[in-house]
Amino acid sequence: MEVTENQVKSRIFDMCDENYKSFSASLIPNIDNVLGVRLPQLRKLAKDLYKEGFQGFSTMPAKYMEFDMLDGMLIGLSKDKPDTILNKIAQFLPRVNNWSVCDSFCCGLKFTKKNKELVWRFIEPFVTDEREYYVRFALVMMLDYFVEENYIDEILPLVLKVRHEGYYAKMAVAWLLSVCYVKFPEKTEVLLNSQQLDEEVLTKTVRKICESFRVSKEQKIRVKTIVRK
């Protein structure tokens, strides 16, 4: 029996938590359509609905943030051909209007692991996009799947091309570079010392590096001097 959109909405509403709604909404500025469903619950629901054949909501964008999240998770669960999944991603991206939808969406796109070059060619142009969450999408995809030997020498020059002034784009650059530093400290430190990074991005990057438990005390002391320079 086919699952209807109204049945799915009812299952989502049953998961709503008012306390979590207040907490979640406080972390996402300028968003007033949060229901308050915890991500693990939503991910489990997405897996169940995928097995039941639910294809996602027909209305774009959806009325509530969790509806958008669920549709993004269903794309991540898809067993379609890689090109078909990329088409679905392209259609979904206009619905990404906050960091939470963006980051949860990227996390679920596990098909990337077996299609690195194809996905890289897809996300690379978004680094210089004028839309903040397209930029963030590309950068979060890089830190989730591409901070490795084969791509580090492409990632580091690319971050210098980010020109978007949005807070969440800049934070994504800092987050990406902090992950690069953990895995490739020498190469990343050369970039940090190059004086080519936006001052705000550099400060945020150093802060995130110093918050990492995978960075030594000596490394933290050294990168702090870069900001003071």
What does this structure look like?
Helices cover 65% and strands 0% of the residues. The protein is built from 13 helices and no strands. It is globular, with a radius of gyration of 19 Å. It has helices at residues 5-14, 18-27, 39-52, 65-77, 82-92, 99-108, 116-123, 132-145, 152-159, 167-183, 185-192, 199-211, 217-228. With 229 residues, it is mainly α. The mean pLDDT is 94. The chain has two domains: 1-102, no CATH class; 115-229, Serine Threonine Protein Phosphatase 5, Tetratricopeptide repeat (Alpha Horseshoe), CATH 1.25.40.
List keywords for this structure.
13 helices, single chain, 229 residues, 2 domains, Serine Threonine Protein Phosphatase 5, Tetratricopeptide repeat
- Output the radius of gyration: 19 Å
> Would you list the SSEs in sequence order as H and E?
HHHHHHHHHHHHH
Estimate percent helicity: 55-70%
The name of the CATH topology of the largest domain is: Serine Threonine Protein Phosphatase 5, Tetratricopeptide repeat
Give the overall average pLDDT.
Answer: 94
Distance between the first and last residues' Cα: 65 Å
Reported for the largest beta sheet, the result is: none
Structural category is mainly alpha
Number of helices: 13
- Give the number of DSSP strands: 0
Brief rundown of the structure:
By secondary structure, this protein is mostly helical. It is built from 13 helices and no strands.
How would you summarize the topology of this molecule?
Elements: H1 5-14, H2 18-27, H3 39-52, H4 65-77, H5 82-92, H6 99-108, H7 116-123, H8 132-145, H9 152-159, H10 167-183, H11 185-192, H12 199-211, H13 217-228
Helix pairs in contact: 3-4, 4-5, 4-6, 6-8, 8-10, 10-11, 10-12, 12-13
